[in-house]
Amino acid sequence: MTVKQSYSAADIQAWMVAHLAEVLSVDADEIDPSVNLESYGLDSAQAMSMVSQLEKLLGFQPSPLLLWHYPTIESLSQRLAEELEEGTEVKDTGVTRSTNTSSVSNTPVLDLQAEAVLDPTIHPGGAIPVALPITQPKKIFLTGGTGFLGAFIIRELLKQTKAEIYCLVRVANLEEGKVKLQKNLEGYAIWQAEYDARIIPVVGDLSEPLLGLSSTQFQTLAAEIDTIYHSGALLNYVFPYSALKAANVLGTQEVLRLACQVKVKPVHYVSSVAVFEAPFYAGKVVKEDDDFSHWEGIYLGYSQTKWVAEKLVKIASDRGLPVTIHRPPSSLVIAKLVSVTPMTSLT
Ligand SMILES: NC(=O)c1ccc[n+]([C@@H]2O[C@H](COP(=O)([O-])OP(=O)(O)OC[C@H]3O[C@@H](n4cnc5c(N)ncnc54)[C@H](OP(=O)(O)O)[C@@H]3O)[C@@H](O)[C@H]2O)c1
């Protein structure tokens, strides 16, 4: 790889504008370098591709975390130009990395076990107990209904039950929520007009306390819902743990709070095989009931949040909450891109 030290911030910015315009199939003058890259709808695969193209251009490996700390083309170009001058990688994680070292080798270790603490007030003991199994739920709460997997969960729940599905949606109002859910189902050729009455948006956000609901709304939902499917999460393979924690970890905690409030509600939690990503499990056969206590060596922020979130679900289960954990394989990403592979068993 040729090391090119002569790029200025303006050179890098021009390259990034051109590259992004190409990826998005738009004219370069439609790209505003001062705007957050996320607002261009750049997904994590495209962001990674940009980082890797930059690596070829600059002759060193920029940390993917740069995109988090310098989210606009303008600020990123400036920082990269400074790095070229210094001949070292960025200091934004508090660690200076030498050129061409592994992007993870010097990353400070985050103690995931210490992160896995469930609010002690979340306990099913004080709530009205539930008789299991719940074969005919009347009202189901679902997170992630506007996502890929969520669409197929909605389809299966509509087919297999007579329940109304209350879907948490990140929108401004109920009308937008309806439209967003319908569009998603249409995108996977699932939508049928008769579904309309049974799909009910709940405007909220996983990353906020009480899921972004008022305490009255939260309490009402807690009293009415019979069972919960928690599929929502921020899937981003570039962002660090700190950026994903609110939605993926704290959001899961709020879902467990909902499950333990007023009456006990069984939780179906969509986890990931990423919980076994630690090198300890490499090459080993892992069974579904096996403990997943090893976290050392999980470096991807997304995987770290899935490990901690599943631990929270496990703690809630140990406290007596009925939970079912589903761990789709990473290959679902490919299914997501090329075809459709719904989960077959949800109950
Ligand atoms: N896809 C895979 O390959 C795969 C593999 C293993 C495990 N999983 C797990 O499966 C679940 C679903 O994945 P997916 O592929 O369906 O992902 P997806 O298509 O990206 O959908 C994610 C869903 O979560 C919602 N969400 C994200 N942040 C939120 C927030 N702050 N508040 C409320 N909702 C929020 C999204 O809402 P918006 O529409 O508002 O963004 C969307 O509905 C996730 O828990 C994921 O970890 C997926």
Describe the secondary-structure layout.
Layout: H1 9-24, H2 44-58, H3 66-69, H4 73-86, H5 112-115, E1 139-143, H6 148-160, E2 164-169, H7 174-187, E3 199-203, H8 215-224, E4 227-230, H9 241-260, E5 267-270, H10 301-318, E6 323-326, H11 332-338
Parallel strand pairs: 1-2, 1-4, 2-3, 4-5, 5-6
Helix pairs in contact: 1-4, 9-10
The protein binds NADP nicotinamide-adenine-dinucleotide phosphate.
Strand content: 5-15%
Q: Can you count the helices?
A: 11
Bound molecules: NADP nicotinamide-adenine-dinucleotide phosphate
Spatial strand order of the main sheet: 3-2-1-4-5-6
Tell me the radius of gyration.
22 Å
pLDDT averaged residue by residue: 85
State the low-pLDDT regions, or none: 88-107, 338-347
Q: Would you report the number of β strands?
A: 6
* CATH-defined architecture of the largest domain: 3-Layer(aba) Sandwich
Order of helices and strands: HHHHHEHEHEHEHEHEH
Q: What distance lies between the first and last C-alpha atoms, to the nearest angstrom?
A: 53 Å
Oligomer: single chain
Q: Could you say which structural class the secondary elements and strand pairing correspond to? A: alpha/beta
Summarize the biggest pleated sheet: 6 strands, parallel
